[in-house]
Amino acid sequence: MNNLKNKQILLGITGGIAAYKSADLVRRLIEQDAEVQVVMTETATKFISTLTLEALSGKSVYVVHDAMAHIDLARWADMVLIAPATANFLANLTYGHANDLLSTLCLATAAPIGIAPAMNQQMWHAAITQENCQKLQQRGVTIFGPAIGSQACGDVGAGRMLESVDLVDALQLFFQPKVLKAKKILITAGPTREHIDPVRFISNRSSGKMGYAIAEAASAAGADVTLISGPVCLSPPAGIETISINSAQDMYEAVMAHIKNTYFFISTAAVSDYRPIEQAKQKIKKTATTLQINLEPTPDILASVSKLEKPPFTVGFAAETNNLVEYAKKKLAAKKLDMIAANQVGIEGLGFDSEENALSIFWKDGGLELARANKKILARQLIEVITERFNS
Predict the structure, then answer these.
(1) Position 69 pLDDT exceeds 80
(2) All domains of the chain, ordered by start, with CATH?
């Protein structure tokens, strides 16, 4: 589903070097069939021309007050998105200043406001900037980003405006229908680690990206999401309770502690099937040509959830290198799941460590295919399928 189709996005551009990204953002929004109206501060026009943005949006760009423009624009918008949003504009918005057209219409609109911060990393981390962001969030303003990376000044850190493709993904989530409003969902993600000694462990290649994307999509659909995550290199999703665990036993205990009253359990985590029977208390030294480690099964989290007296709608994941359909259907039946999403791994650019995936989804009487796409897009599609199956 394209949640941006026919949406009226008022794009506010303030005076920062990241304004150059706004041209690509306009283009990508229009590609999603959104209608875009650009409003710029006078300083922003020094970084990118109104002519460029008029050519891309197909609309005249507003810079200064024009009669009742602030009221008309405020009423027109389905969302006011400020990208880039400078530290100065954040301060103006926080304290209700109305010293130009853009800040005035932000006061006049009843539409949701989103901001994509862009500034030097030190300015972003400044106490007053963080305080302003907290106040804005408390008033319902959505903050997209910022990203971490190299900056125009040569610094490296948080403060980069999100890339246009990421902002469009974020808006797709923002406008996702709230079909899961007030529903409690428990999601697991990432790998687990089973320690051999204090230095070494058994694990797998799961990055957690699919699980985190599903958590964000479920939250955007209105759900009350709890995410139980193994060790990953990802930031906890904003607004989602995230519980960090290490081993399969840790994950089992966390799931059982939070499973009560959940409507859905979505197990995307790549949980280790086995663990060492004994963990060496000291680092094992290389003293022989071979080393034997005895393993035992880890707790079966999916099976334990499905065996509950009143189990939630339970969705499992299966990552397979071969016989994908056969193995996925066997797991669906053996663990008594409501649904399973299977994906082929071992293919370059797909699955583990990748931004893309493809899913084969099965339930008792049917199934469907979700074609290869960015994991964030797949996550939205999967939530739609889960909701449809649950309601049926």
Answers:
(1) no
(2) 8-174 (3.40.50.1950), 184-391 (3.40.50.10300)
